[in-house]
Write a structure and sequence with these properties.
By secondary structure, this protein is of the alpha/beta class. The chain contains 15 helices and five strands. It has one domain: P-loop containing nucleotide triphosphate hydrolases (Rossmann fold, 3-Layer(aba) Sandwich), CATH 3.40.50.300. The N terminus is likely disordered.
Length: 363
């Protein structure tokens, strides 16, 4: 029998949810791996459910048990396809469905059920999801979990865009990535203004300058004790394992190098720096970053941006090919996840087209 679930506003006795926001390539793994030294803290490799969100409308009405159960199965499958496995956990989709079916139905509720169950197994008091891009769904998650906290990690947009330009998960264009950066921080600022007590904002550059001070501030915010072990990331088994999987993570098992904060100066052209500073001007002022240019570059129109998006898509295809040759482990593990998402999309599209055909066929 299918019924509309009620809205639950309490998850008493479970770990407190914490979401790191607002955008990947901000130094987030460096923070996650260090905080994981606390026995009261749990944060596995993130699902990055933002990549799944375009598929959600294809499931149809989630009030229908069949549709919601299929979504649960596919999210559990996404977790199983993650390139970095969650330690010592396995999920039964039937159990997950039964646990959440009578609450407000949402893909985010399913994701957090996986996280909270895994955190409970590890006896954590705080569970963090490092799916930073989920900032765009913060309001929905606040409705699901009114006690949720947010760790807002800010990085110099020039340095972050330079890093994004090298990542297959982002665009291969500084202007497009700068616009993505601004959209993410716009959403973060709306969250800060709406729920100031629920958000801690830190700058990655401040972490580079004084790891202990920043980590102590985070621990105070989430109600856990700072541990000196957090300063020795080389002792993290996960950090060592991740450093072998992807060139993007090769430095995760080492301490941060403060001099790298200015590495973008050799990675970006002056024109790229100016367009980033122009697009991100207001946020840079707000966060206290110094400008290198007049920050007055012309903003490309929609036609030019569309052309750049096409070029970026071609760059991504080339990047997949290069990754296959340069690091087969990274390539294969990322493809498993990408293939899972592609197969889910194909199946849902086929089912959607079949439903439309039935609905429009004369009787």
């Amino acid at each position: 029998m299918t019924r509309q679930p009620s809205i639950s506003t309490s998850h008493a006795g479970r770990p407190r949810p914490l979401l790191m926001v607002p955008l990947r390539r901000c130094g987030s793994h460096a923070l996650r791996l260090r905080l994981n030294f606390s026995e009261g803290f749990y944060s596995p490799y993130p699902l990055h459910i933002v990549d799944f969100m375009p598929l959600v409308p294809l499931y149809g009405d989630l009030a229908e048990d069949r549709n919601y159960f299929q979504l649960v199965v596919d999210v559990v499958g996404l977790q199983a396809a993650s390139m970095v496995k969650w330690p010592d956990v396995a999920f039964d989709p039937g159990e997950i469905f039964d646990a959440v079916k009578d609450e407000k139905r949402s893909v985010h509720r399913v994701v957090w059920e996986l996280l909270l169950r895994s955190g409970e197994q590890h006896h954590a008091r705080v569970v963090m999801d490092k799916s930073l891009d989920s900032i765009h769904y913060a309001a929905e998650m606040m409705e699901l979990f009114p006690d949720m906290l947010f760790l807002n990690v800010v990085r110099d947009p020039r340095a972050q865009v330079a890093s994004m330009n090298r990542a297959i998960i982002h665009d291969f264009d500084s202007t497009l990535n700068a616009m993505t950066w601004v959209a993410a921080h716009d959403a973060a600022q709306r969250l800060v203004h709406a729920h100031p007590a629920r958000v801690l904002t830190i700058r990655y550059e401040d972490f580079l300058a004084d790891q202990e001070l920043v980590l102590r501030g985070i621990c105070d915010f989430i109600g856990l004790d700072f541990l000196p072990q957090m300063l020795d990331v080389a002792a993290s088994t996960e950090a060592r394992q991740m450093s072998k999987l992807s060139d993007l993570w090769s430095s995760n098992c080492f301490g941060p190098i403060p001099a790298n904060r200015d590495k973008f100066k050799s990675q970006l052209s002056v024109d790229e720096i100016e367009i980033i500073e122009t697009v991100a001007r207001e946020h840079m002022r707000s966060y206290g970053y110094e400008f290198m240019t007049d920050a007055n570059a012309p903003i490309p129109d929609d036609v030019v941006l569309a052309s750049r998006a096409q070029q970026s898509a071609l760059g991504r295809v080339q990047a997949w090919s290069q990754l296959s040759n340069a690091n087969y482990r990274d390539f294969v593990l990322r493809r498993v996840r990408a293939d899972h998402l592609a197969s889910v999309r194909e199946r849902l599209n086929h089912a959607h087209q079949s439903r439309l055909h039935v609905a429009t066929t004369p009787t």
